[in-house]
Structures are given as structure tokens and as C-alpha cells.
């Protein structure tokens, strides 16, 4: 890869060749998460604002010089990326903001931001000659891998905890994945997947381990900046589980800055569910991360032992941002608020960032006139049971107009 200099350990700084099958630093162990280091001079020669304005490939591949894949590699035919960026005026009124943009990544092919990472995974697996790709997941990474693998003609093996929503499990099965329902929590599923991947020699799509997958996730902020005509938000708000998404988002902003596409960097705000917030606790206390129970309905961010906390914490601290927690009730309220004001259907984890934004504005940490972007990371159809909790039950009537009039008479909207 002409655009990649190597992989650098975020703990000790050691650099490894990008063509070696090294995912973590041998010296630092689990703390030795690697970062892709780019040749920005090469990038500047091969892509610019002007060339992008003429590019009609509206997918993540429009940013190929920023991605760690071979130019000639076969890519997934699914249209991943270039999701809409909305300017939700009604939502702004409710929140008390004058400049808010909403990135709806639930409109990716398998209905979550995780398609961005899985698109890179299947391309890298193809480059290295793998026939099977595997991962552990609470749901979205799994379905995105299964869908993208199917589109590329690869086999997928997915390990999910027993709490994974049936809507997401159904996606996996429809996409032809071999699904292993581990009767335990996400940590149990992760450990079993790691053992199986080592034993059978499958390609490892676990985003907290594989350094290339964060590079796919960063395309969400490459798009945001381009869609804002290279205006940089003051704040970028993301829900946080294992930390890979916010780490990727920050990496995207930094890469654009290093390549001269933008002239400043935003503050990053990470939002976790109160019932599973180990990264927030580490950020606020300054202490090493401690495991937590996975006690939240937001399954996609229910990660009690995150594998990529350091990159997430670095993103928050480097950007001079913050972290905040929200309750499950606040998450459900955000699902309803988003739907009522924007017509966008987000799953619990997908709207956790919005729930946190509401608290940050109410607490005065984000002011009315700051430019804010928040990302809806997954579609609500993945978890309809919690959507029903958020929205409430329908009005039940017999097939009688008189009864209908009585039921509707008490509703303000009529």
C-alpha cells in the first residue's frame, strides 16, 4: 500500500510493516493496539477537495487514498457510506441549538455504521487470501460482517452473546452466517471467538483488535466534513461501547487535518449508557479502566470490558472533549424525540449520542450557537421491542366510528 507507512503501537510507539499479519504489539500485549500511519504527502498528491467534487462514487471508496487497501483490490458491491446529513430544524428548537446536523448511518446496507468497518474487513480478507471471516459482536458488527461477506462470496462465523436482539440474529442467518449464540455476556463471546479464530485460522474482524477496521469507521467524519463543505463542527457526538467508533471518528478528523483538507479539529463527546459505562468512569476518574456489568437495553454499546478504551480516551482527551452517561429511560426518550421531530428511526445505541447531546446542552457544556454534529449509528428496526417501549401502544378500537370518535376526542393532535 503506497499510502501507508506502517502500523504504530499506541503504547510504546514501535512501528510494524503494514504487510505483516500483526494486529497488536507483541511487546505490549492487549494494551498494544496499533494505529495505521499514512504518508500524507502521497495522499495530498492523489486526492484533493477539487478531485472529490468531481467524484461520482458516492461510497466510502471515494476516499481510497485515505484507506489501507490496495487500489486494485476487489471491493464489496454493497453501497457503504455517503449516508445523509440532515439539518433538523424541529429538533434544534427542542434542544435549544441553532446549528445542528444529524448523520443517519442507519441507512447503510445492513442498517448501521458498522458496515464501514466490515467493508474494509472483507476487502483485507480478500487481499490476504482468506475464505472465512469471523468476529464477536453484540449485533451490528455481526450483521454488517455477514452481509458484506455474503456480497463478497466469503464465509462468516459470528459469535453473539445470548442477549443479542432477535432482529439482528435474523439478519445474520438470512445472510448465511454460521451463528454461534454464546450463553454468556459479550466478554464470553469475545474470548470464545478469539480462541476459535486462532484455532481455525479465520480472518479476525474484531474491531478492537484489527487496526484496519477503525479506518473504515473514520469515513463517517470524512463524509461529514465534505457534506459540510469542509466546515468543521465545534462538537462531534458519538455513542460509545468498546470505543472503536469514536476513535475512528477522531482519526478521520485528524487525517483530514494532516492532509490539509480542514484547518481545525472539533471537540469529541462520547456518550455511554449509565448501566454500562466503564470508559466514562475511567475518563472522569483518571483511573485505569475497570470492568462493569452489561446492564443496559442499548445492546450495541453494552460492552463491560471494552477492548479499545485507550484510543477512545485519547480521542476525548486530545480533542479537549468530554464524556457523559445517560439512563435507559433517557435513551428511550431520545428514540421517541428523534422519530417525532426528524422522521428518523434509531435503535437504542444509535440514539444514545443524541440523548447525551440533550444533557450536554441542558447542562451548559454545549452552547446554543456552536456547530454540532451527532451520528445515529443504527436503525430502530433492529430492535423493535425497545421501540415499542419508547413509543407506547397503538390505540385499540372496534370497527365502529362512534367508538373511534370517543377515543380520538381526548387527543390534543385531533
TrEMBL record:
Pathway: Amino-acid biosynthesis; L-threonine biosynthesis; L-threonine from L-aspartate: step 5/5. Its cofactor is pyridoxal 5'-phosphate. SUPFAM superfamilies: Tryptophan synthase beta subunit-like PLP-dependent enzymes (SSF53686). Keywords: Amino-acid biosynthesis, Lyase, Pyridoxal phosphate, Threonine biosynthesis. One of its GO terms (biological process) is isoleucine biosynthetic process. It catalyses: O-phospho-L-homoserine + H2O = L-threonine + phosphate. Pyridoxal 5'-phosphate binds at residues 140, 377. Residues 79-378 form the Tryptophan synthase beta chain-like PALP domain. InterPro entries: Ser/Thr_Dehydratase, Thr_synthase-like, Thr_Synthase_bac/arc, TrpB-like_PALP, TrpB-like_PALP_sf. It holds the Pfam family PALP. Its EC number is 4.2.3.1. The modification N6-(pyridoxal phosphate)lysine is found at residue 114. It is an enzyme of class 4 (lyase). The keyword Transmembrane helix does not apply. GO terms for molecular function: L-serine ammonia-lyase activity; threonine deaminase activity; threonine synthase activity. Belongs to the threonine synthase family. This is Threonine synthase. It comes from Formimonas warabiya.
